[in-house]
């Protein structure tokens, strides 16, 4: 069945794309990735990441679940007015947003100080081997 639609951009050429000057000519192989993954450097990078991300994730989920549980089962507490029409539920709800932004900022700072230098070493070594 023929279609009146024009061919996709780039024509009908199905040959592999050739690297441009800003792209590396050689891509690492699966074996090279596996070798890096088994290296001590990569293991240290993974441990550094996990020692930060897992505890912080658990803490944030617990904080979120506390908010949900308080909203569901402690209506009296959550409805307590602090000043004007501002109650405990509103303050804790806004604190959820604040916590999210603080965690994102803290992670970006941690990653740039601890994770990125280790990842850059691994990346530069892989590019040198390529």
Structure description:
- The protein is mainly alpha-helical.
- Helices cover 68% and strands 4% of the residues.
- Helix 2 runs antiparallel to helix 4 (88-129).
Spatial extent as radius of gyration:
25 Å
Q: Given the structure, what is the number of helices?
A: 4
- What is the strand content? under 5%
Strands, count: 2
N-to-C series of helices and strands: HHHEEH
Give helix % range.
Answer: 55-70%
Principal-axis shape equals: flat
The strand line-up of the biggest sheet is 1-2
Low-confidence stretches: none
State the distance separating the first and last CA atoms: 46 Å
Which structural class should the secondary elements be placed in?
A: mainly alpha
What is the averaged pLDDT score?
86
Largest sheet: 2 strands, antiparallel
Topology at a glance:
Elements: H1 30-37, H2 40-73, H3 75-78, E1 81-83, E2 86-87, H4 88-129
Antiparallel strand pairs: 1-2
Helix pairs in contact: 2-4
